[in-house]
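Hello,

Following up on my earlier ticket. Below are the two sequence lines again, exactly as submitted.
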Amino acid sequence: MRITQSMITKSLLSSINQNRESMHSIQESITTGKEVERSSDDPVQFYRANRFRQSIKQNEQYLENVQNAEGWLQATTSNLDSMLNQVMTLRERAVQSANDSLSAENRLQMASEINNIVEDLVSLANGSFLNKNLFSGTKTKIENPFLFDGNSIEYQGNTGKINRRISENFTININVTGQDLLDTNIFNSALNLRTALENDDTNEIANMIDSIDSASEKMISLNTSIGSIQNQLELAEDRLRTANLNLSTFISETEDVDLASAITQYNSEEMAYQAALQSTANILRLNIMDFLK
Amino acid sequence: MKTTVATHTSQTDSFLCRFHSGEYQMLNGNGTDFDLTNIIDFDNGIPGFEELSKFIVVPLIEHHPFQVLQSLEAPPIAMFVIPIHHFESKQEIKIERIDLEQIGVRSQDETDIYFVMKMSQEEKIFTVNTKAPIVINPKILQGCQVILDNPNLQIEQPLDLA
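Thanks for your patience. The regenerated structure is below:
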């Protein structure tokens, strides 16, 4: 497109008018003392201020979700740790009782000790956080997700995932379900060890040592995956808090813009206005002689 | 383009005093040079201002060592920052390689690092966010705000000048 003299003049004049407008609005904000007074004053800035304020609120909600999730995971991992401790004891007892020097009566006593461990495991698996079951999927309000009738264990929960939204487009899964616990085979190993002890079956007791080892490995891997979720949550928390800190520096500056800075801005706008006037004068002075040079 | 905007500010006002009075926007003045040849790209924005990517770092000559990270797309957005070597920290600030690669450097030594400052309204004290420094590659003018994975660093650490 060819730029004609009249186009230059037009655009210069419109830029002068823009400067006038903006000077006018700054003068107004000096009088009122508040920069973002009406949405029409500076729609972009008004929109931004509003949106940033909403962002802060939204981030605070996400922060609450993160902190709640952190509490939940803390409770989960602490229960899993206690369960792991019980599994260690279970293994020690299995190794002891595999020893041939023990009598059938000794093993029977040992079996009742194992029974206590199973009860402890079940009670840990029925653990809760803020009155919600930790290990029952999305059925978090059942009285006892795990029922132990002395012979077998029944899981009443489901395999539902519990997710927490920690940013606009990111949710994170925070629960270990009862099914995950069952899949480690921890309860069955314990119950089978008890049966083997009752039956004074040393071969089966030796088998159960392997079974317990494999269960404890699976428990540890559950706990490790929780650790990595906890790391992600910490990162998310730091990011949300940083975002809100950044946003808050902006909000405090927009809300109560002080007179001095408005005056400063006014001065520089005035300079721009003068500069625009001058360059217009120069360009409009161009005549046919200038083009012939 | 290099412009100097002259203003009439009282020389006697200390930076702290002005900061405390809520007079944050000294950005157009104080005899400060706005060097628009050094516009820094924050390709991913910074947390909270994800859609803003153009910033400049303006040193406050009268208020050394404080500087201002000024958005060019949204002028009211500006944050006070302080170069990390002016800040007394017992903690080592170590930027992960993956974060350094984001701004095209291999070593932390090739970067300028700043902490974002905040003034607590209630207690009238300055804090700096040591957990999330602003890292800039001055050669290709790329920047980012990284979150460090060091639990000992604080988001609101009281300011202690080196």
